[in-house]
Amino acid sequence: MSLTKLPTTVKQWHVRGTDPEFKSLEFSEQPLPVLGDSEVLVKLEGASLNYRDLTIAQGTYPIPVADNVVPGSDGAGEVIAIGRQVTRFNPGDKVVTLFNQAHIGGRNSIRIRDTSGLGASLNGTLRNYGAFNEQGLVRLPSGLSAVEGATLSCAGLTAWNALYGLPGSQVQPGQWVLTQGTGGVSIFGIQFAKAAGARVIATTGSEEKIALLKDLGVDHIINYKTNPDWGAEAKRIAGGEGVDHVIEVAGATSMKQSLAAIAIGGVISIIGYVGGTAQEEPGFLDCLSHGCIARGFMVGSRVQMEDMCRAIEADPKLRPVIDKKVFSLEQVKEAYEYQWSGKHFGKVCISIV
């Protein structure tokens, strides 16, 4: 079933080999694949980048990547055709992709992680048309554009999982949340925390970005370059007991400071490694001595994403923060280079026409 005459070709990027300067990215036009019985054909209108996409092109991503894969996990657009067994969507529906296509609910697994990730094991969103299993899509929150919606699949859902994904430890009004930097996950974390009535401490290494963080309602800002012991400073700001949640995006290089900031019984959500790795990392004794939970996870489930989308629909202030520089599909390589430079604030996005 289709809404319009279907296209015969698709314009898409591929990752051929690996290269630190993203020369592995290649753009081409290919025949449109046949739509499967359980698949939904989406005219993609927006996409966004994550640090993970850069590491896939560079060859440093720690999870298996298919040869010649179409990159990108995050995308949004309009359903233009459905397979004969599809029941969840109809042509004309606006949808957003799920990061791990098989993670519907409950716990993740090695099988789900290694075989259903868009832009790694499965062809992703950096193309103008894509077929996805109907189970791997959610409805675009009303009021969001496709480009805005395309920021939710990884960064939005990861931040939501960090604050709401651990039973008994969900963020509460009045609690303290510590975020790091001004990337997509951190900014979503700020927004979700403030919407919950929590108080937020944010770190940044850029004096120029302090005003932008203040505009998001951050209560306290620490420059980690001028204050390398920012963990102790965050603990002091939080009344000496420490913060309740840390959204840890930098990885081993900043974990020592996150431990210094956390309260007894607090949760450190380990969700990234943008700061690289270190030879000496805090270990289990550090978690024991600080009396905290260190929780690693990968993005989240469709059930969690649907919860997040309902929250976004209910709160007009929860608008994704998009960097002022938006790229076209043909400019994807430039978008990768821009994100790698670290000059962005919020999500680096692709407008697909």
TrEMBL record:
Its pathway?
A: Secondary metabolite biosynthesis
Gene3D superfamilies assigned to the protein according to its UniProt record, in alphabetical order: Medium-chain alcohol dehydrogenases, catalytic domain, NAD(P)-binding Rossmann-like Domain
Lineage, top-rank taxon, reads Eukaryota
Q: Where is the Enoyl reductase (ER) domain?
A: 17-350
The protein in question is named Alcohol dehydrogenase superfamily, zinc-type
Supply one GO molecular-function term: oxidoreductase activity
Q: PANTHER family, per this entry?
A: PTHR45033, ZINC-TYPE ALCOHOL DEHYDROGENASE-LIKE PROTEIN C1773.06C
SUPFAM superfamilies recorded for this chain? GroES-like, NAD(P)-binding Rossmann-fold domains
Pfam families, per this entry? ADH_N, ADH_zinc_N
